[in-house]
Amino acid sequence: MPINLSNSYLDLGQSFSQQSLPSPVAQPILLLWNGPLAQTLSINYSSQKDSEQLAQYFSGNQLIVGSKPIAQAYSGHQ
Q1: Which backbone phi and psi does 63 adopt, to 5 degrees?
Q2: Residue 73 within any structural domain of the chain
Q3: Residue 53 belongs to a domain
Q4: Is residue 50 part of a domain?
Q5: 9 to each of 25, 69, 72, how far by Cα in Å?
Q6: For the chain, N or C: smaller number of CB within 10 Å?
């Protein structure tokens, strides 16, 4: 399932983030789904298998092709 990503935050340098793998999550499930937003983001969802795959992606258990996970520095704004 291809998902287009932008890793532009990495361009800001090491003062703002560092590469870091997500912590595993036991048995993630997809509880809610925003169909119109998914369509805008070109994320296809059509079956229970897709639900299980998306839960793995969104929990960080499985990385999306092309992703570069980072931990972001707190910048003091909210």
Answers
A1: -85, 140
A2: no
A3: yes
A4: yes
A5: 24, 10, 9
A6: C
Per-residue pLDDT of 18-47, as tens digits, reads: 888 999 999 999 998 888 988 888 887 777
Within-domain flag for 9: no
Q: Which amino acid is at 24?
A: P
Q: Which residue has the tokens 């595993």?
A: 24
pLDDT value of residue 78: 63
Distance from C-alpha of 7 to C-alpha of 35, rounded to nearest angstrom: 24
Residue 45: give the domain boundaries. Answer: 23-63
Residue in 20, 22, 44, 21 with CA at minimum distance from that of residue 33: 44
Q: How far is CA 22 from the centre of its chain?
A: 10
Q: Is the dihedral of CA 37, 41, 42, 43 positive or negative?
A: negative
Amino acid sitting at position 71: A
